[in-house]
Every structure is written in C-alpha cells, then in structure tokens.
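[job 4471] stage=fold_predict status=RUNNING
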Amino acid sequence: MAKLAINGGEPIRTKPFPTWPQLDPADIEAFESIYNSRRWGVGGTKVPEFAEQFATFQGAKYGVCVNSGTTALYVALKAAGVGPGDEVITTAYTFQATIVAILMTHAVPVFVDTAPDSFLIDATKVEDAITNKTKVILPVHIAGYPADLDTLVEIADKNDIKLIEDCAQAHGAEWRGKGVGSWGDFGCFSFQTSKNLCAGEGGIILTNDRELYERTWSIHNCGRTPPDAEFGNIEPFGTNFRMTEWQAAILLSRLTRLEAEANYRHMNMRWLDGWFGEIPGIKVTPLDPRATRGGCHGYKAILDSEEFEGISRNTFINAMRAEGIPLGYWYNTPMYRAAFLSSHLFGCDNDYNDVHCAETEKICQSGLALSQNVLLGNEEDMEDIIKSAAKIRRNVGELIERNT
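[job 4471] inference complete, writing structure tokens
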C-alpha cells in the first residue's frame, strides 16, 4: 500500500484545482463600458438591468440591489417590520452575518436545531419555536442546499409570519423547479468574492410582493421610491445601501455564465455523492429530492469518526490536504456561542448559555466541506478527491499510529 503523503509518501495530486474568481475578457469589456459612460452610480442603467435579470433568473418579480449580503438581510428584516424586541427564528449553523443582521434591527435571534445530518434548519421544529413575538422565519440554504421550503412556507402562511430566505450561498439553486429566494417574502443573496456569482461585494433582495418591493427600495435608497412608483416617499427614514454600476456591470457579465456553471457544479456534486458514500466513515448529505438543483457553493459531507477507526476530523482533513485535496469545514461553533451575543454590543440581553442544539453541535464537529471552485474541476479532479479519501481509509492505521 502507498504510504500516506502526510507521513512522507507521494501525494495523489500536486496540481491546483480551478482558481476563483475565473476570468473572462467579457468582464473587462463590462468595466470599460461603465468607465466610458461616466455613470458610475446613481443614474446608470446597469443596476436596474441586473436587478431585473437576476430576479428573473431566480423566478422572482422584483429585485433591489444593495452593497452586501449582510445589508440585504438587514433591509429585508426592516421591510418586514422587524424591530426591537421582535423574535426571528433561524439556524445556529450559519455565518455570523445572518445573526448580526437580526441584531442590527435590535430583534432577538431564536435558534432552531438542524435536521439530522443535513446542515439545514429542521423545519419540523420551527413551529414549536413560534411565540407572540415572532416576526420572521429566516432559514439559510447552506452551501446552496435548499432547506425544506414546502414546510417553511406552510408554517409562515399559517401563522402570518414573514419568511426571509438567506440565499447568500444559493445562486442557481432550485426547489421543485423554481429558484430559491422566490419562495418566501424575501430572498437575500450575496455577491462577495467567494460566491458563485461575485463582484467583490454586493447583494440583492428579491420579492414577489409589490408593496414589499417599494418598501425595500425606500429603505435602501434614502427614503425614495422606485422610478415607476406612483407616489412619493414611503419610509420616513432610509439610508444609502445602493450598489454601484461597476458591480452591476460585472455581475451582468458573469450572470451569462452562471447557468452553465451551476449545472456543471451540480453534476460534480452528484458524482461525488455516488462515490463518497462507498467509503466507510464518510456520510454523504444529498439534496432533498424536491431540490431540483443545488446552488453548490460547495460540497458537504460528514465524517463518522467512530466508523473511521476513531480518527478526528482535523486528522482526516490534514491527511486529505497532504494528498492535495483542499478539504475543510463550514462552521465549527454554533452561533448561540458567538462571543458578540454576550457582549451586549447590540443591546441584546438574552442569555444563550442554556441553549443546546444537539444536531448543530454534532455537525460543527463532524462536517466536511469542499469549496465551490473545486466543483468546477474536471472528471480527473473529482476522481482524485475519491482516490485520496479511499487511500486514507486503506491506510488509516498510519494515522492512528502517527497520533498516538
């Protein structure tokens, strides 16, 4: 048997996976068009054009472009009427921006556990968390894997609660053939550098409700109304969260490639599902059958340490990296343990010391992740991932000896 690379053997691969962002001459042309137009911000045409095209791509009627995904969540929460003392039900397995946006409205995050081995909020437990203070349900489509939108929409409608989808990692993801972000009252996306559709920074809020659209527009643009609105200011207070023409132009350029890239990542995700599941100790976490396409901001799986002869997640990750596979994990701490929740930075006096979400804590210790650029690799690249994991499994005794 070949010696593991972590112990001095030859690695499975030495070449890098596809870099990100990938470059295209069309992006340069998009920048030049903005430069020459002299319309770099207000008054340009690219922001409204992108808002319309991306909303259509995801199956929504309206889009409001903003300067970040965090801003998108904040503006959507404000447009939903969230304010001090209100409760927002969400997942503890997410990036801090989800929780920070809630705290920025001076509302209270209420955490619901993830479904077993899914990384996603357990929709069957959401209704039990509803109180007379609940204003919003905020699921997160982690890694572009859609949460159970059928159940979440039903619960929100039944209880007259707004549903805001955190789609920061879910560009191109579909639920029963319709894009995520168009199922709830709002869908919030990020265009930060690592995202599948990126412009360095930026975000967008999608909605199908005209009144909510006008309210969102007003909040993001200094209290003004959309150009096609009939009346004057809707919100007495708004601020400047606008996207620039530079961002919109490159997003329009890159949007032309998103469909093909989404399908390619989805294909590789399905291929990895089929082979990872054959390795004892690796659990795949496939899409819900109702999710017709994953956003594939990355690939996720679970290490069953006990079945993998007791090695830790860090040991396995380090061994994979030594073989040339950039394996990692999403989040290793539930958000209810985030330091800023106990810092009173946002005036949040809630005590989360007694909050325990067993499945979330399990995923934080056992989850595995490959980034979205890896899913743009070719068939040989995907085979190297499986070969590396299989090689480690065959030689697991080396790792046990190394760590004793």
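[job 4471] summary: Residues 68 and 288 are 28 Å apart (CA to CA).
[job 4471] exit 0
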